[in-house]
Design goal:
The complex is a heterodimer of chains A (about 350) and B (about 80). Chain A is mostly helical and about 350 residues long. Chain A contains 17 helices and 2 strands. In chain A, strands 1-2 form a two-stranded antiparallel ribbon. In chain A, helix 7 runs parallel beside helix 15. The longest helix of chain A has 27 residues. In chain B, strand 3 and strand 4 form a beta hairpin. The longest helix of chain B is centred in the middle third of the chain and has 14 residues. The chains are: A mainly alpha (about 350), B alpha+beta (about 80). At the A-B interface, helix 3 of A face helix 1 and helix 2 of B.
C-alpha cells in the first residue's frame, strides 16, 4: 500500500510536466506534417533517449526488471493504426486527453469517457474476441521472451540500449548543428516564472518526462508492477472498480491517471490556465468517437502512445516499435484526411 | 500599443480543441489581403505558444500576444496576403 501511495508524487509530477510542457504525442506526430512544426516531436524523442539511457543504467544496477511489451504483429499493426486515427479525432493521445481534463477541457473528458468505455469493452466485453484473435494468431516470441532488438541481434539489452542512446544523441547533435537550429529564445523571466508560469521549452520537457519515466519505472517496481508510465490500463482499472468486478482494486496504474489529472490541475491553476472549456456538441461527438477508437486500439495493440512510444521504445521491444510506427501512420492518414485535404480543395 | 490597432477581422476559437485554433487561424489568414489585421481570441495554452511560432513560416507578421485574463489570450497578426 505504501508503494502504491508512495508513487503518487511521481504521478502528480508527470501530470505537472505534461501540462507545463504541453506534452502530447498526438500533437507531436500530427504537427510535423500539418503545421511543419517539430517542437513537440523533439520533446518526445528526447524523452525516449533519456529513458533509453536511464532504463539501461537501472537494469544494470538491478533496481528494475526489464519488461518489453509482447509482439503480435497483427494486433500491433491494426491496434496501433486505429489508435493513431482515434487520437487525431480526439485532439489528444491517451496522456494528452488525461492531462487536459486537469486543464478543464470538456472535449478531453468526452474523449476519455470514450477511451475508457471502448478499452473496457475490448478487455472484457463484446470486442474481446477480436482482440484475442489478433493477439493469439500473430504472436511471435524469441524463445521464452518477448522479441526485442537486443535478443534478435543476440546482444545484452543494457549494452545495446546504451550504445543506441549514445549514437542517436550524437547523430542528432550533428544534424542540429548542421541545420544551425535556432536555440530556444532566451527569456529574462525568473526561474520561478519559468517553471510555474511559462510553458516549458522542448528540451526541458523531454528531459523531465524521461527522468519522471525512470522514477515511475522504479516506483512501479516497488509496487510489484514493473512497467514504466502507462495510461489506458489505469482507466480500465478504475472502470472495473466502478463496475464492481471481483478482485478489482486501485492499482499503480489507476492511481497514475488520477495523479496526472491532479498534477495537471495544480499546474494549470498556478499558471492561471485552468478554465472549463466547452467546444460545442459537434466536437464533443468527434472527440468521443476518437476516444472509442483509441480505447480499442490501445488494448488490442497492448499499449497506447505512452506504453509503446514513451516507455516501450526505450526498452527496444519489437511490439512497441511496430505499434509506434502504426500509431504514426494512422495519425498521419487521419490528419491528412481531416485537415490537409479539405484545405487543398 | 495594440489597443490602437483596428483589426479587420476577429476569429474566436475559445473552447476549440487541438489543432483547430491553429488551423482556423492559418486558413483565415490565407484568405486575407496583405496588410489586413486578424484578431484571434483563444484560450488554449498550446496554441498561444504555437501560433506565434509558426506564423513566420507562412510569411505573416505577429503584432502582439496579449493575456486578457487567465488562459484567455488575444493575438494580433498582420496578413501577408498570399492571394
Amino acid at each position: 500500500m505504501t508503494a502504491v501511495f508512495g508513487g503518487l508524487f511521481v504521478r502528480m509530477l508527470f501530470g505537472f510536466a505534461l501540462q507545463r510542457g504541453r506534452f502530447c504525442t498526438n500533437s507531436a506526430i500530427r504537427d510535423a506534417i500539418l503545421l511543419k512544426d517539430n517542437t513537440l516531436l523533439k520533446s518526445v524523442l528526447v524523452a525516449v533517449l533519456v529513458a533509453m539511457f536511464g532504463f539501461a543504467i537501472m537494469v544494470m544496477a538491478g533496481v528494475i526488471k526489464y519488461s518489453p511489451t509482447p509482439f503480435f504483429w497483427g494486433a500491433n499493426l491494426v491496434g496501433g493504426f486505429i489508435f493513431g486515427i482515434g487520437m487525431v479525432l480526439a485532439g489528444g493521445c491517451a496522456s494528452g486527453v488525461t492531462y487536459r481534463v486537469g486543464e478543464g477541457m470538456v472535449s478531453a473528458l468526452s474523449a476519455l469517457i470514450g477511451l475508457t468505455a471502448a478499452a473496457t469493452l475490448t478487455v472484457m466485453g463484446f470486442l474481446k474476441p477480436i482482440k484475442d484473435y489478433l493477439q493469439t494468431s500473430t504472436k511471435i516470441m524469441v524463445g521464452e521472451a518477448n522479441p526485442t532488438l537486443a535478443n534478435i541481434l543476440g546482444l545484452p539489452y543494457v549494452t545495446l540500449a546504451l550504445i543506441l542512446a549514445i549514437i542517436l544523441a550524437i547523430v542528432w547533435f550533428i544534424i542540429a548543428r548542421k541545420n544551425k537550429e535556432e536555440s530556444e529564445p532566451k527569456s529574462n523571466a525568473t526561474l520561478v516564472a519559468k517553471i510555474f508560469k511559462n510553458g516549458w521549452g522542448w528540451l526541458v520537457t523531454g528531459v523531465a518526462i524521461g527522468l519522471i519515466n525512470m522514477l515511475a519505472f522504479y516506483s512501479s517496481t516497488l509496487a510489484g508492477r514493473s512497467y514504466p508510465l502507462a495510461i489506458t490500463s489505469g482507466w480500465i482499472g478504475i472502470t472495473k472498480i466502478g463496475l464492481a468486478v471481483p478482485d478489482a482494486k486501485m492499482g499503480w496504474d489507476a492511481w497514475m491517471v488520477i495523479g496526472i489529472i491532479v498534477g495537471a490541475f495544480i499546474a494549470a491553476i498556478i499558471a492561471s490556465e485552468f478554465k472549463i472549456r466547452w467546444p460545442g456538441w459537434k466536437l464533443i461527438a468527434q472527440t468521443f468517437v476518437g476516444g472509442l477508437l483509441m480505447g480499442f486500439g490501445a488494448v488490442t495493440s497492448a499499449g497506447c502512445n505512452v506504453t509503446h512510444i514513451v516507455s516501450g521504445l526505450p526498452q527496444l521491444g519489437i511490439g512497441s516499435l511496430v505499434g509506434s510506427i502504426s500509431i504514426v501512420l494512422g495519425a498521419w492518414l487521419a490528419a491528412y484526411l481531416i485537415f490537409v485535404r479539405p484545405q487543398n480543395k | 500599443m495594440s489597443e490602437n490597432i483596428n483589426p479587420t477581422k476577429t476569429l474566436n476559437v475559445c473552447g476549440k480543441i487541438c489543432p483547430y485554433p491553429d488551423m482556423d487561424t492559418m486558413t483565415t489568414l490565407k484568405k486575407m489581403q496583405k496588410g489586413e489585421i486578424l484578431e484571434v481570441l483563444l484560450d488554449y495554452p498550446l496554441s498561444v505558444e504555437r501560433i506565434p511560432r509558426n506564423l513566420k513560416k507562412q510569411g505573416h507578421r505577429l503584432i502582439s500576444v496579449e493575456q486578457i485574463s487567465g488562459p484567455n489570450h488575444r493575438i494580433l497578426i498582420e496578413a501577408h496576403g498570399l492571394k
